[in-house]
Amino acid sequence: MASRRIISQEKTLLEKDDSIGSSPAANEKSNIAPAVPAAVIFKLLAFTFAMIVVPIGSYFLTVDNVFKGNSTFAGALAAIMANVVLVAYIIAAMREDQPDQEEKQQQKGSSRGEDKKSR
Questions:
Q1: Which residue of 8, 43, 81, 88 lies most exposed, with the fewest beta carbons within 10 A?
Q2: 21 Rama class: left (phi>0) / alpha (psi -120 to 50) / beta
Q3: Which domain holds residue 95?
Q4: Model-level pTM?
């Protein structure tokens, strides 16, 4: 036969207090920092805006002024400008990631140096 549990004496998940006892969350404060820095979000928004404005703007600026009504050449230029914005975003993202990679390499190098010194 199955044993019966007395439910009225047990605490529910919401009633349990993490600040008492040896739980991992007892002495830690919550980390409420955003997962992505604000500069990254602003850079993404700027490139999104550029991805919309630059190709459309280049089309309408050049269709009559430069290419004298030839929409094929103006459309090709708009496509090229969209690719230029995309490549610029990729380069900016790679440059942003380089300091992080260099820092990781320096940390690995310094930990290896300490290992050699301790021998």
A1: 8
A2: left
A3: 35-107
A4: 0.60
